[in-house]
Fold this sequence. Notes:
Layout: E1 18-22, H1 55-67, E2 72-76, H2 86-94, E3 101-106, H3 111-121, E4 125-129, H4 135-142, H5 149-161, E5 164-171, H6 180-190, E6 193-198, H7 216-226, E7 229-231, E8 242-246, E9 252-256, E10 269-272, E11 277-279, E12 288-289, H8 290-295, H9 300-313, H10 318-321, H11 324-329, H12 335-338
Bound molecules: S-adenosylmethionine and iron/sulfur cluster (2 copies).
InterPro entries: Aldolase_TIM, Elp3/MiaA/NifB-like_rSAM, MoaA, MoaA-like, MoaA_NifB_PqqE_Fe-S-bd_CS, MoaA_twitch, MoCo_biosynth_MoaA/MoaC, rSAM
Pfam family, one: Radical_SAM
EC number: 4.1.99.22
Amino acid sequence: MTTKEEKIVDQLNRPLRDLRISVTDQCNFRCSYCMPKEIFGDDYSFLPLGELLSFSEIETLTRSFVKLGVQKIRLTGGEPLVRKNVHELVERLTHIKGIEDIALTTNGVFLPKYAKQLKGAGLQRVNVSLDAIDNDIFKGMNGRSVGVKPVLKGIEAAQEAGLLVKMNMVVQKGKNDSQILPMARYFKEKGITLRFIEFMDVGTTNGWNFDQVVSKKAIHDLINSEMPLEPIDAEYFGEVAKRYRYVGTDVEIGFISSVTESFCSSCTRARISADGKLYTCLFATAGHDLKSLIRSGATESDIDEALKLVWQARRDRYSDERTEETAKKRKKIEMSYIGG
Ligand code: SAM
Ligand code: SF4
Ligand code: SF4
């Protein structure tokens, strides 16, 4: 049987440390860079319930992933909180020995309803996505005309429940780059870490091109000119965000520079889609069907072995090799399905 001491690494010598689990491909928002409403309309076929991994199946798979080295779990989607009883999944996962951190990424709207339950089940942290502090800009971006207030209420509810909150903002030129400074000022004042994410060419539906990307450097320099920043060391190998602090404060800010300063050489992340496919890269074109494996009666050691083989064969480094050409031609999986 596989043990953690075996130190599983892939073909580029990267260990397996993080597992992102998508619990649903559905969402209450239609952010144009993720699920454009023209494509994800009323007639769009989402996964039927029976195709989703059950919580017990997710738990079984997670146990095997932990044996291979996974220490951090992130629940995501789609919008993870549109799936019923996610707190029950959190509770199951907190009992797995070896997991050091469980977090959830959400658009925040359902946090007033579920934050306490999630915290009670053992969740430690939430990352809340918000792309503008200006109501009209945000309404335009989420495709459902939802204002900023429900998200701010979600943040408050999470903090009141004792969850640590970090914010994510995807920056898209011409759409919300005017919001970089207002967002930085707002969350600095609140003492909440805000992370800026470069707009990525995930999937094939968001019309991505390089011209719409605002680089980490440009965002950094803009903020730094008004509110000086100093870098902070990464906390662990494979940390995605480059971290900074506002000088003279404890308030942090981060940058996820997947396009202009890629970080594939330290990418320790695996992803499971809501229907149980394992992806070894956000930009993968195909996954490995774990649901069929588990539903065909595989034993724990069969699963351990299958995961080990996939990880050991991994060579993905899409962002290191990205060109305008690969971004357009490659048939990639949608972010809402693979799990952001
Ligand atoms: N619905 C949840 C949310 O929005 O937080 C979780 C899933 S969402 C796919 C996870 C993260 O991916 C969000 O922070 C979202 O802004 C980010 N994201 C989605 N599409 C993106 C893109 N094309 N480029 C960069 N980040 C993206
Ligand atoms: Fe939904 Fe999150 Fe995608 Fe926006 S980024 S459409 S909230 S899954
Ligand atoms: Fe990891 Fe793939 Fe992103 Fe590179 S492109 S950092 S391998 S998910």
